[in-house]
Structures are given as structure tokens and as C-alpha cells.
Amino acid sequence: MVLSAVHKLRVFQLGFSDPGRSFYSSGDKVSGSVQLEAAQPCRVTGLRITAAGCARVEYRGGKNHKSRSQEVEYLKYEEELRLEEQLSRDSDGSFLLQPGKTYSWTFGFELPAPGRLVSSYKGKFGYVRYYARAVLDRPSQHALQCEKEFEVEEPLDVNRPDLLAPAAASIQKKVTCMFIPDGQVSICAHIDRKGFCEGEDININAKFENTCSRIVVPKAAIIAKHSYLAHGHTKVLRQKLSAVRGNHIISGMCDMWQGKTVRVPKLKPSLLDCDIIKVEYALTIYLHIPGSEKLILELPLVIGTIPFGGVGSRTSSMSSQVGSMGSQAGSLSSWASFPSSPPSYSNIHRDLRVDGPRTPLLHDYDGGEDDDEGGLFMRAPELYYPPPPAYSEVRQPTPSDSSVFCQ
């Protein structure tokens, strides 16, 4: 920072050796320098560098909206810079900075070993923050400080065996209308692995069944869950990210997703090792049911920093993990023999459609992004004309026809 003349210092700033570096990881060395330039003769007694990193949660909650806060420390470092390397010490132990000259002292420290740091984070009710601070002591005056933050990103490899294992689950729900049974709906889904990185596509295989009297809509979305813990109380925020939807499923029908994709957007990796802040992700597959609560199925996701290396990166331990999920995914084995979905009505020639008045059938309300979809519509059938035959038919004349012609 640049100081005014009343402080007798023109420049007091801290900088890192590699200003273009975006982040550091465990075991990396953080280095830089502190620069001083006096506007007029100025005495100082010491210069030290401190580095710190902590997670902090703070929010208001409870009936009385009481403020809750908690901190956890992950980095603490302090180093006294040797001013005598460039300045002479006076009899009173102070050092004199001459005006018009720039002084610089270097510093460096090593970040803790893997497992002792967590990645930087900034959220609504908490953060994980790392910084280096320079403190300049002056005789009979308050110390001056300047600081600079740096990012920490701990590597998270999605090629770990536990993250290469598939995830599968199934769920069903009985639907009622005025307490009268109205059939049921069900979801059975699985994904090939749990670990993904930004920009990758998640392939979803799912089967949806609808035996109730209503038209249901299958959808899927990536959900982020941010949890903040303070003295035994937890604040949770959920955020809906990328989403996809399928075709409407009428009563008595089912639908299949075979490799339907949803892309992982740009987002922060999962934060799992912090004591008071968690960032977790899930793939939520659900059915929107008019007049009833959604049927929701969640499959866990871990967003990492080291992307998937391909099929060859799977280890032999995968077979045992896949086998352990056989009870959940057993019903999915029949998907290959299940007939493919019927063609969409959008593929029918325009001449076969009716441009008459439309009557709203139901609204596909999903409490947010889908409010403007306008619902489903049925069309009046009275103006329907069948398509012309693919070939022409010539009817042989009958005797009665001949008599008519002769007249």
C-alpha cells in the first residue's frame, strides 16, 4: 500500500514471488518480499511476517436470532525479518529508513503436509481464508500492517476406487387423491461412477413407471449442499445447478433414460475435510407429480480437481464394489431388453396435427425455473383427417354402374 506523508512512509507493501499463480497446495512453498520506502526519515524497530489460515462460520439462528460463530485454525506461521541486513541499528535499538531509497526483504514458508489443510472457500455464512501479513513496528507509535490473501486448493482425484464405483438406487411412492389410493410411481436409476470434474458429462440410466391417473414428468439436477456448523448447530443451504428433463409419462406407461446426460458446470470442488464447513453434491432424479409431492431419488457425487483418466484407470477392486451393489442395481439389468421409447409426437407430419383450439389439461409447476412452461394441452379431435393412403386403389365397375353410364 502507498501511505501518506503523515506516516513518513511512501510505500509499505507485501507481494508474492509468483503473482500469476492461482493457488497453492499442501507442501508448496509460499515466498515473496516486503518493500519499504520512506517519504522522510523514519525510525522502525522491527518487521515480521505472519501467515494464517482459518475456517470461520457466523450466522444468526434460533428463536431469538442469536448470533452463532466458530473458528478452526489450519495454518499459523511467524517470521522475524532481519532489518540489520540492510539497516544500521542505533543505540536505542531502532533502525533509520532514509528517504528516497527502496528497501526490500524476502520471506518464505512451507505449507503443512497433505491432510492438514483444506481448500479456500467463501460462502454465505462462512469462509476458509489464507493470508500473509507484514507488521512494521515503530517506536512510540502503533504498528503498521499490510496483508495479501492467497488461495489454497487441495487436490481431489476422482480416479480413487471409491469414486470410480457406480451408484444406484430405487424408490417408489403410493399416490393418493383425497385419501383414496391412486396407483403409484417409481424410479430406478444408476450412474457409472461418483467422481466427476468440471465440464464432464454425467450419464444417467433410469427407469420411470407411472401407474397413477396423473401425467408425471421426470427430471434430474445437480444439487449443491452447503453446511455450516457452529457449536452443535447446523445451517444448511441447498442450490440447484444444471438440470435436464424428460418426456411426460401418461398413466399406465413407463419411460427409460439410457445415457441421458447432464453436464457438470463450473463450480468449487467438494469440501469434505473441513471441521465446520461442508460442500457436498448430489445428482437428484425426481418425478414431478401434479397435486402431490415430488418423488425424489439422490445419488451421491464428489466434484474433484483431477479428472477421470479413462477406463484403464479402474482398479481390480472395482469388481468387488460393483458386486456389493447388485441388490440395488439388479433390476437395472433388464434394461437392455426393454423396448426403446416410442417416437415423439413432434416427429409426426404437420398435416396430421390440428391447429384448432387447445384446452389446458394440467400445469407442470416445479416451484421455480419451470413456471413458464405453460403446462400440458390436449387438442380438440373433431377436425382430424387421416393421412392419404400410400397407394391408389382402382375399383372395378359393377353392372349397376354400367347401367348408369348407359343412361
Automatic annotation (TrEMBL):
Annotated GO MF terms: ubiquitin protein ligase binding
SUPFAM superfamilies from the UniProt entry: E set domains
Primary location recorded for the protein, binned into one broad class: cytoplasm
Protein name per Swiss-Prot or TrEMBL: Thioredoxin-interacting protein
Recorded superkingdom: Eukaryota
InterPro entries found in the cross-reference section: Arrestin-like_C (IPR014752), Arrestin-like_N (IPR011021), Arrestin_C-like (IPR011022), Arrestin_domain-protein (IPR050357), Ig_E-set (IPR014756)
Cell compartments where the protein resides: Cytoplasm
Start and end residues of each stretch annotated as Disordered: 359-407
A GO CC term assigned to this protein in UniProt: cytoplasm
GO terms, biological process: nervous system development; protein transport
Entry keyword set: Cell cycle, Cytoplasm, Disulfide bond, Isopeptide bond, Phosphoprotein, Transcription, Transcription regulation, Ubl conjugation
Function text: May act as an oxidative stress mediator by inhibiting thioredoxin activity or by limiting its bioavailability. Interacts with COPS5 and restores COPS5-induced suppression of CDKN1B stability, blocking the COPS5-mediated translocation of CDKN1B from the nucleus to the cytoplasm. Functions as a transcriptional repressor, possibly by acting as a bridge molecule between transcription factors and corepressor complexes, and over-expression will induce G0/G1 cell cycle arrest. Required for the maturation of natural killer cells. Acts as a suppressor of tumor cell growth.
Similarity comment: family membership: Belongs to the arrestin family.
Subunit organization: Homodimer; disulfide-linked. Interacts with TXN/thioredoxin through its redox-active site. Interacts with transcriptional repressors ZBTB16, ZBTB32 and HDAC1. Interacts with DDIT4.
Biased composition (Polar residues): 395-407
Sequence ranges assigned to domain Arrestin C-terminal-like in this UniProt record: 181-308
